[in-house]
Amino acid sequence: MTAAAGTPGEDARARPIRVAGEVPGLFAPLTLDLVPGRVTCLLGASGVGKSTLLRLLAGLPTGVDFRGTVETAPAALMGQDAGLFPWLTLRENVGLGARLRGERADPARIAALIAAVGLEGFEARLPANLSGGQRQRVALARTLAEDRPLVLLDEPFSALDARLRLDIGAMAVRLLAGRTVLIVTHDPAEAARLGDRILVLTPAGLTAHPAPAGPVPRPHDAPGVLAAQAALTDRLIA
């Protein structure tokens, strides 16, 4: 991560991040703990409750009968849709959070974040004039601009083609280094590449799966990544 992106203070990074409870009919009693400063990938089939857990950590409505407790921290959320305002330029979208709070975004920091995601020279473009991959990189820069100790990624790469998924996923974990990150995904390959920890959610509950050796992001064709991908796929289809 560039110095301009900033990292949260040690106190913020060390606070517990935990969901403990159940949603009858969705998932059994579980405890989800996030390790401070690390990337946790939450893997599961569609409809199993992954996004519900993420929304609980984000403090957002879930529409379900959750019975339990949540310990969380100020969070930045990046979803499947880039969520860009079509009438704002790229630069204005990156600094949108500050604008909505009635604050003035730091122009130098916004410029550094735009450069960090490889979009220098595109600052004045509107979202309609950006590709899907470029829009997701704008969303990543906006997420970084929030400078939160907790970052929640809800399948943000799922609509991208294979090459962009690899490139932008790797970019995200590099730029988010040092933050507590939860990536929700249904893709075993993504979990094997990007997770310091891998958790698998099924209707029966939450279980850990050994992560491949080596720092994230891992090469997609590393033997350990391929083996973990196969094992995780087996768990999902069992």
TrEMBL record:
Residues 12-228 form the ABC transporter domain. SMART domains: AAA (SM00382). Pfam families: ABC_tran. GO terms for molecular function: ATP binding; ATP hydrolysis activity. InterPro entries: AAA+_ATPase (IPR003593), ABC_transporter-like_ATP-bd (IPR003439), ABC_transporter-like_CS (IPR017871), ABC_transporter_ATP-bind (IPR050166), P-loop_NTPase (IPR027417). The keyword Transport applies. Keywords: ATP-binding, Nucleotide-binding, Transport. Belongs to the ABC transporter superfamily. This is Putative hydroxymethylpyrimidine transport system ATP-binding protein.
